[in-house]
Specification:
mainly alpha; five-stranded mixed sheet; two-stranded antiparallel sheet; about 0% strand
C-alpha cells in the first residue's frame, strides 16, 4: 500500500518485459473459481448443451444454432457463443466441461483485461485491486462456471473497450471501427444487452479525442453503421432464408430473428411484458411468466428444489412463500422490486453490490474538482467511461420488469474498475491529508462494511453469526483507527489500509466460492449459500451432487414410489386453480406457495412426493458437492432408460425419436443419444411452429409417430395436442414407464406416451 500514492510511471518498455508477480496469484484465484470441478457438471444448461450436440452433426445445424439434430427449431439466442462452444466440443470431445470451458476462460480473460485497462492509467496497484475485485465478484465465477452466454459477452465487451482506449491513445480511426464492430459481434451473442455499453463508448470518444466535432460525428456515425451491419448480419441471412429450408426461430412468434432481438430479447425485458401466446391459446398471467423464456421456465421448475431447507422453513414458517411473479418481497425470480435501491435488495445485493458504497465514495474522489467544461485528465476521462457504463446499466436493472440474477455480471467491470482506481485515489487523498477528501477512505470502508453486514444478515442460519459480526466489527474498527491516525505517516498506517481492503474482499471471496462449496446451478447461476437452488431461496439440502440445481426431478415416464396426485406440483396451465403452482400437499392462496398443511414438522417444507426433508443445511459436510457427475441440466435432467429403450426398439425409420411439447423433456434425450427429438412448441411449448395439417403431413411421411405429453408447456400448441390425443393410441405405461422410487416426482412424471400412424 505504501506505493499506492505514487503517480503512474511511463516506463512502458520495462513494464512489457516484466511479469507482475502480484498478478499471478490473482489469476490463479480466478482460474480456481472459474474452472475447479466444472468437470462434475455433465449436462450444464441442458437446453444449450443439446444445441451443441445438434450443431456438431451438420453445418446446417451449426449455422442456425438448431436445438435439435433434426433442425426443427433453434434456441432462443444468437449463435456466436454456441459456435465457440461447439468448436470446443469438437476439439475436446462432447462433455459438460467442454461446453463450459469457453465461458470459464472468458471469466479469467476478463480479469486480465481489467488489469490491463486500469493499470495503464491509474497505476499498477489500481490494476491489481481491480483485477482482484473482478475475480471475487460473486456473480462472475457463478456465471463463468456454466454454458450461459453472459461471461463471454462481458469478455467481448471488454475487448471492445481495450480497442476503444487504443483508438483514443493512437488517434487511429481503424481502432474505432473494430471496437464498434466488436459490439456488433457481442450483439450476436445476446442481442440488445450488448448495447448497454454504448453510452460509455460515445461519451468517452467525444470527451477523450482531440479532433474537430465534425470528425467526431463522422467517425462515430461510420462506426455505428458498421456495428449495426455486423449486428444484423446473421439475422438478415436467416430471415431472408425460406422458412422451409431452415429451423423455426425459437421463442419468436413470427419466425424472425429481428423480432426475437427487439421484442422477446429486447424491449420486453425492460417492460416485463414477457407473455407468450400461441395462435389460439392465451395462457393465464402466471403461466405466461413461467413460460416466457428459457430462463423463465427453468426458474419455475426449480421451486421445489429451492424450498428444501428445513431449518430455513422453521425460521420462517409463519411466512408464506409465493411462486415467481406472485409478488413476494424479493420480487419476480428473486430480483427485487423496481426502485432506486433495488440493487441493495436481497437476491441482487449478494451477487454484485458488496463494494458499491466504496465505489460511490471512489467516484466522489475521482471526480472531485472536475469542471464541466474541462480540461480533463486521462484519469478523469477513463473514470467518465466507467461511470457511463455503470450508471445506465444500474438504472436498467433498477427499473427493468424482467431479468435474472446472473445478468448482473454486466455491472462487474465498472464496479471492479472503480474499486481499483478508487482504492489508489482515496489512499492518496488520505495520505496527503487533502481536506474533506481525506475522509473519503475511512467513510468508504465504514459504509461498505455496514452494507456487507446487511447483505449477510438473511443468511445467518447458513453462515453463522461470527463472519457477520467479524466484518462489521473490523470494518468499524479499521475505519475509526484510520480516521484517528489520519495525521500520521508510518508503516502501521499502510498495514491498516491493506487490512481494510482484505476485510472488504473477504466475504465476496467466500460468496464467490459458494458454487464450488455447495454446488452451482447451470440453469440460473447465482452465488451464495443457496447457490445450487438458482433462485436465491433457501439453501439447497441435496446430499447427492446429482440433485444440485434442477435435477432430481423425474425424467419423462418415470414414477416415484408415492405418486399420489396430492403430492404432485400442478402445471401452470389447465389446472383447476387457474394456473397457480402449489407446493406438494399444500393449498393455493392467490398464487402463494405454502408449506404442506397439517405437516408434523413445524413448518418444514416437504420434498415432492411427500417425503420429509430433514437434511442438513449447506454448512454441513453432507450437503457439499460430491465428486460424482452432476446432471443439473433441467427438470428432466436424467433420461428414463426404459422409455428410451422402448422408443428405440419400436422406431421403424422415423426421423424423430419422439415428439414432446417443449424442450425441457427433449434436451436430455438429445444429449444422451444425439437423435432428433421434436420440441413441438419450442422451448416453452408456446411457439406457433406446428399446425395440425403440418403434423399430419409429417406423420404420413413417416417422420414421427411417438408423442410424449405432460401437463406442462401447452401454450400455443393446444390445438395440436388436442388432435394428438383424439387420433392416437395410448401406450400402456407398463411398457415404458420407470417404477424407480429414487426419483422425485415432478410435473413431467405425469405424462402419457401416444402413438399415431396415418395412412
Amino acid at each position: 500500500m505504501k506505493h499506492m500514492n505514487s503517480e503512474v510511471k511511463e516506463e512502458r518498455t520495462s513494464n512489457k518485459k516484466r511479469i507482475d508477480l502480484f498478478l499471478v496469484p490473482i489469476v490463479l484465484i480466478a482460474a480456481f473459481l472459474n474452472l475447479f470441478k466444472i468437470w462434475t457438471d455433465e449436462y450444464a444448461n441442458a437446453y444449450y448443451t443439446a444445441a451443441v450436440k445438434s450443431m456438431l452433426q451438420s453445418f446446417h445445424n451449426f449455422f442456425y444454432a438448431s436445438f435439435d439434430p433434426g433442425g426443427y427449431v433453434t434456441i432462443d439466442k444468437p449463435p456466436v457463443v454456441f459456435w465457440i462452444q461447439t468448436i470446443s466440443a469438437k476439439i475436446f470431445g462432447f462433455h459438460g466441461w467442454s461446453v463450459i470451458l469457453p465461458q470459464a476462460l472468458a471469466g479469467i480473460g476478463s480479469v486480465l483485461l481489467l488489469y490491463v485497462l486500469v493499470k495503464r492509467t491509474f497505476g499498477v496497484w489500481a490494476g491489481r485491486f481491480a483485477a482482484l475485485a473482478m475475480a471475487l465478484t460473486p456473480i462472475v465465477p457463478a456465471v463463468s462456471r456454466t454454458n450461459n452466454i453472459d461471461s463471454m459477452l462481458v469478455f467481448t465487451l471488454l475487448v471492445a473497450t481495450w480497442m476503444l482506449f487504443r483508438a483514443v491513445r493512437t488517434a487511429k480511426f481503424g481502432w474505432v471501427l473494430v471496437a464498434f464492430a466488436m459490439i456488433g459481434v457481442a450483439f450476436n451473442m445476446k442481442m440488445l444487452q450488448a448495447y448497454m455499453v454504448l453510452p460509455a463508448f460515445y461519451v468517452f470518444y467525444v470527451v477523450a479525442t482531440k479532433i474537430t466535432w465534425k470528425k467526431k460525428i463522422a467517425f462515430l456515425t461510420t462506426a455505428t453503421a458498421l456495428m449495426l451491419a455486423v449486428s444484423v448480419s446473421w439475422a438478415v441471412v436467416v430471415d431472408s432464408t425460406s422458412a422451409d429450408k431452415r429451423p423455426y426461430m425459437g421463442s419468436s412468434q413470427t419466425n424472425s430473428v429481428l423480432e426475437l432481438a427487439f421484442g422477446y430479447n429486447g424491449i420486453n425485458r425492460l417492460t416485463g411484458n414477457t407473455s407468450v401466446t400461441g395462435s389460439s391459446h392465451k395462457q393465464p398471467a402466471q403461466a405466461q411468466q413461467q413460460t416466457a423464456s428459457s430462463e423463465t421456465k427453468q426458474t419455475s421448475n426449480s421451486n421445489a428444489e429451492s424450498s428444501q431447507s428445513s431449518n430455513q422453513s422453521k425460521s420462517s414458517s409463519s411466512k408464506k412463500m409465493q411462486a415467481p411473479g406472485g409478488g413476494n418481497q424479493n420480487g419476480m425470480f428473486n430480483t427485487g422490486n423496481p426502485g432506486p435501491f433495488r440493487l441493495f435488495q436481497k437476491g441482487l445485493s449478494d451477487q454484485i453490490s458488496w463494494l458499491l458504497p466504496f465505489v460511490i465514495f471512489s467516484i466522489i474522489g475521482l471526480f472531485a474538482g472536475v469542471k464541466f467544461k474541462g480540461p480533463y485528465t486521462t484519469k478523469q476521462k477513463e473514470s467518465l467511461f466507467w461511470l457511463a457504463w455503470l450508471l445506465p446499466v444500474a438504472v436498467f436493472f433498477s427499473i427493468a420488469g424482467f431479468f435474472h440474477q446472473y445478468y448482473l455480471i454486466m455491472l462487474a467491470p465498472p464496479i471492479a474498475a472503480f474499486a481499483g482506481a478508487g482504492a489508489v485515489a482515496l489512499w492518496s487523498m488520505y495520505k496527503q491529508r487533502n481536506g474533506w477528501k481525506s475522509w473519503l477512505l475511512p467513510g468508504g470502508i465504514l459504509t461498505t462494511a455496514a452494507l456487507q453486514v446487511y447483505i449477510m444478515s438473511p443468511y445467518v442460519s447458513s453462515i453463522g453469526v461470527a463472519p457477520i459480526a467479524g466484518v462489521g466489527a473490523l470494518g468499524v474498527i479499521l475505519a475509526l483507527v484510520l480516521a484517528v491516525r489520519k495525521e500520521r505517516k508510518n508503516a502501521v498506517t499502510n498495514y491498516l489500509g491493506v487490512a481494510a481492503m482484505v476485510v472488504l474482499l473477504a466475504m465476496p471471496a467466500y460468496w464467490a466460492m459458494t458454487p464450488i462449496i455447495y454446488g452451482g446451478n447451470s440453469m440460473l447461476p447465482a452465488a451464495g449459500p443457496d447457490s445450487s437452488s438458482g433462485m436465491g431461496g433457501p439453501p439447497s439440502t441435496a446430499t447427492n451432487s446429482k440433485q444440485s440445481g434442477f435435477n432430481g426431478m423425474q425424467p419423462p415416464g418415470s414414477s416415484s414410489g408415492n405418486s399420489s396426485s396430492n403430492n404432485q406440483m400442478q402445471p401452470p396451465s389447465g389446472s383447476s386453480n387457474g394456473g397457480q403452482m402449489q407446493m406438494p400437499g399444500g393449498s393455493s392462496n392467490n398464487g402463494q406457495m405454502q408449506p404442506p398443511s397439517g405437516s408434523s414438522n413445524s413448518g418444514e417444507m416437504q420434498m415432492p412426493g411427500g417425503s420429509s426433508n430433514n437434511s442438513q443445511m449447506p454448512n454441513s459436510s453432507s450437503s457439499k458437492s460430491s465428486s460424482s457427475k452432476r446432471k443439473s441440466g433441467g427438470m428432466n435432467a436424467e433420461v428414463n432408460k426404459k422409455l428410451l429403450n422402448y422408443l428405440t426398439k419400436n422406431n421403424t425409420g422415423e426421423k424423430y425419436l419422439f415428439a414432446t411439447t417443449d424442450s425441457t423433456s427433449a434436451a436430455p434425450y438429445i444429449i444422451e443419444t444425439g437423435k432428433p427429438v421434436m420440441a413441438m412448441g419450442g422451448f416453452s411449448g408456446s411457439d406457433p411452429i406446428l399446425t395440425v395439417s403440418k403434423l399430419k403431413a409429417m406423420i404420413k411421411k413417416g417422420e414421427v409417430k411417438y408423442f410424449y405429453l405432460s401437463g406442462m408447456g401447452k401454450g400455443g400448441q393446444s390445438d395440436v395436442i388436442t388432435w394428438i390425443k383424439e387420433n392416437s393410441k395410448e401406450i400402456p405405461s407398463s411398457k415404458w414407464q420407470s417404477t424407480s422410487s429414487s426419483s422425485q416426482q415432478g410435473p413431467s412424471g405425469n405424462g402419457t406416451l401416444y402413438e399415431i400412424t396415418l395412412k
